């Protein structure tokens, strides 16, 4: 049986189990295949699980749409950000020479990278859409290093399940599963439309993840950690988003 029909079968199986034999069976199936998102609890729990499970199985390797240069939006819309912290302003005053991204957790070689190091790795540009959960969006050209390149350098352990990433700005942290972390279009962006990434858009460094809503593309990223469990982060729901009422998985 080929991969896709197998995936379809599992998804259909989970959905059918939810309908026919009740929630417990569906939940057990989803658990078995590692398809339960960290914020699955509560009234809408099964809905979240089904959305995540079917997306995971059917679109694990699919690509977000990429656009032509002529389709780039006139103005990349920066969303409002909270007033910048002193820690950020100090680094900005120094031209971000001292900006660091540290990666630790379930990796062979915990490493701290400077921007210059990140820029020395093979860079990639992609023209994708950033879509906010509030309804607006824009198309821009993002330049950076694919995250899988950097994760290969630090050596992710086989039992890793999630990547948790943090902004230098308080209250902004997110996580994604390893399948999204290693996805070819997920990258650490330091450029926008041919220039350095402007501060309002998350410069000098943000995560870009075009297959999920804008809030997963955290700005001002300074720290990432690889883990097999999200329980000890924040309220254990996987990220700041579900703590504020948004879905952890924001696939588009
Ligand atoms: N650190 C940080 N990251 C953030 C945000 C923020 O306010 N602070 N806003 C998020 C939201 S809700 C969206 S829609 C996008 C907006 O990206 P843009 O400003 O480039 O349009 O960034 C996301 N990343
Ligand atoms: Mo947003």
Structure, explained:
29% of the residues lie in helices and 23% in strands. The protein has 2 domains: 3-59, no CATH class; 69-243, Alpha-Beta Complex (Sulfite Oxidase, Chain A, domain 2), CATH 3.90.420. The chain has helices at 3-20, 23-32, 45-59, 86-93, 115-120, 147-154, 178-181, 240-243, and strands spanning 100-105, 111-114, 124-131, 137-146, 162-167, 173-177, 187-192, 195-196, 206-208, 221-227. The protein is built from 8 helices and 10 strands. α1 (3-20) packs antiparallel against α2. Bound molecules: ligand MTE and molybdenum atom. The site of ligand MTE has 17 residues, from loops.
Oligomeric nature of the chains: single chain
| Distinct small molecules bound, one entry per kind | the ligand Nc1nc2c(c(=O)[nH]1)N[C@H]1C(S)=C(S)[C@@H](COP(=O)(O)O)O[C@H]1N2, molybdenum atom
CATH class of the largest domain: Alpha Beta
Shape: globular
Indicate the proportion of strand residues: 15-25%
Largest sheet: 5 strands, mixed
Radius of gyration: 19 Å
The CATH homologous superfamily name of the largest domain equals Oxidoreductase, molybdopterin-binding domain
Biggest sheet, spatial arrangement of strands: 2-1-10-5-6
Number of strands: 10
